[in-house]
Design brief:
The protein is mainly alpha-helical. It is built from 24 helices and 6 strands.
Length: about 475
């Protein structure tokens, strides 16, 4: 059945290459995925069609069926359809679910949606144990969705370290879930991450490789040439930075290209946090590539650029790798990082206080990248990570200039096709036209005062000038 589904999807995808704006073909592909309970993929295909034409008539039938299967009713269906025109699925889920009637306790859970609403509320309150239970309940009710797996993994990886006994219970839950067969490929990624946390690296590697295998089997880009070729494990490119500058969008666009096969997860943090786990652990997150087959793979961990001595570790393992850095106006980037931390409850100061505090410290430092440990006890690096010149200078002392592509974040959004052609040329792959350019992980926040912006502009001006002189390119950040 899996083979037949893949064959039919490939047939319709080929038809789209001839008639890329034929929405009826998207409808057929979405219907195929829906019939196989591939609900995330159904949603993804519906969204592709909506990006081409916001008129919902061509995809409403299968989309409505899917939403009803998931427990949406009445106006919720319309709200969700509207959200799909501009948001990726898990962002849409959060936006819609946050409007829903609050579920007070686990006893109130009747649907997967109830479970995610409760989990979301508990996560916001930092009631991590209870949030984990709620998301596990959501997975039990509807295991094919990626969102509860994604959020559960985020809590365990970045917010809270459950007791080892509780981790063992979650591992057992995932093994039982996988044996049932009705689950997202991301379940294997979560299992791998939890096993890694437990120090069970060999078992984690197997989980990651299974995740990759499942994505490859359903990847319409894969051809007989790929399947029948001798393969090697390699990593061809890294998007090394910078955080809150568009790396998620860039990686998302790049992974639409038929010659790019993505890693199991966008950010692996191997070179800045997990290097001691070894090369085998890292390579398990990537698909094996045919020798000379034209396929490439890579990952995007945006904090590599500013992390201590990462460039030396990368060169040690992959001296010929291609490196992409996307740089955003450092004032905008700093403000965006602040609001991200505020949303994650990692920041409790006002914007003015947080920026002014860091500004006063960095003003008196000759080399702003060489700050004391005391600095990190109070500051979050909002301004520090925008000092691009000093980071790139260190990387380019290790790697030759021709292995770097430096992009402006503003160009990625204002001239997407032109910017992506630069990326394709740099990676030496064919040109490719994207059907849509959604902004991934974008945030919304109130306007910054002109006085604060001017202070930050004045601080960054000499550092931006050094960057322009060093790279021989203009950024025109005002």
């Amino acid at each position: 059945m899996e083979y037949q589904l893949k064959k039919l999807v490939n047939h319709y995808r080929k038809a789209l290459q001839i008639k890329p704006y034929n929405l009826a073909i998207y409808d057929k592909i979405a219907e195929l995925y829906y019939e196989q309970r591939e609900l995330d993929k159904t949603l993804e295909v519906c969204q592709e069609a909506l990006q081409i034409q916001p008129d919902l008539a061509s995809v409403s039938k299968v989309l409505n069926k899917m939403l009803q299967t998931l427990g949406f009713e009445g106006e919720e269906v319309t709200d969700f359809q509207n959200l799909l025109q501009s948001k990726l699925d898990y962002e849409s889920f959060h936006l819609l679910l946050s409007r829903s009637e609050t579920v007070k306790t686990a006893a109130d859970i009747k649907t997967w949606k109830d479970a995610i609403v409760l989990g979301y509320d508990l996560k916001e309150k930092k009631q991590w144990d209870e949030a984990i239970i709620a998301y596990i309940k959501a997975i039990e009710i509807e295991p094919s969705l990626s969102l509860p797996h994604f959020t559960l993994n985020y809590i365990i990886s970045y917010c809270f370290s459950p007791h080892p006994n509780k981790l063992e219970i979650i591992i057992a839950f995932y093994y039982q879930l996988i044996q049932g067969g009705l689950t997202s490929y991301y379940a294997y990624v979560v299992l791998g991450d939890i096993l890694t946390k437990q120090g069970k690296v060999v078992e984690a590697i197997l989980a990651y490789k299974t995740a990759i295998d499942k994505t490859i089997r359903f990847n319409q880009k894969i051809t007989n040439k790929y399947i029948n070729s001798r393969k090697i494990y390699d990593v061809n490119f890294l998007i090394i930075g910078m955080g809150k500058a568009g790396t998620s969008s860039l990686y998302y666009y790049l992974c639409q290209h038929p010659q790019i096969i993505p890693a199991s997860d966008k950010e692996l943090h191997f070179f800045n946090k997990k290097f001691d786990l070894g090369l085998d652990w890292y390579l398990a997150h990537f698909p094996p590539l045919p020798v000379g087959g034209g396929f490439l793979t890579g990952e995007a961990t945006p904090w590599y650029l500013g992390s201590y001595e990462v460039e030396k570790k990368v060169f040690q393992l992959f001296p010929k790798i291609k490196l992409i850095a996307i740089l955003r106006n450092p004032v905008d980037r700093a403000i965006s990082q602040y609001y991200m931390n505020l949303k994650l409850m990692k920041e409790h100061r006002s914007l003015e206080v947080a920026m002014t505090s860091e500004l006063e410290i960095l003003k008196g430092v000759e080399d702003p990248t060489k700050v004391s440990n005391k600095y990190w006890q109070t500051e979050k690096g909002y301004l520090w990570f925008g000092l691009y010149f000093y980071f790139l200078e260190k990387w380019m002392a290790v790697f030759p200039r021709e292995q770097f592509l430096i992009l402006r974040s503003e160009d990625l959004y204002n001239q997407t096709d032109k910017t992506m052609k630069q990326v394709y040329d740099f990676l030496e792959i064919t040109d490719y036209s994207l059907s849509a350019h959604p902004k991934v992980n974008s945030g919304f926040y109130s306007k910054t005062s002109n006085e604060l912006r001017q202070k930050l502009d004045d601080f960054f001006q000499p550092h931006n000038q050094k960057l322009e002189d060093y790279l021989g390119m203009k950024f025109n950040w005002k």
